[in-house]
Amino acid sequence: METAAIAGMAMGVQAARLQQEVATGVMKMQMDASKEAAQGIIDMMKMSSQALEKSVNPHLGTMLDILA
């Protein structure tokens, strides 16, 4: 094999490795962003359900009966 061919293959392998690392990094960033968005939706749903519960039963939790 010629030296130029070996050098060309080495450059090709290095370029493929770099492309794979970049693709993996971008995918990790996307997964993190999706995870944060999902957590935001879950938090919003919890707050919404609590507000709905208070609007349906506004008297719950407003009085405390204590017997001595």
TrEMBL record:
Pfam families recorded: YjfB_motility (PF14070)
Xref: InterPro entries: YjfB_motility
The protein's name: Motility protein
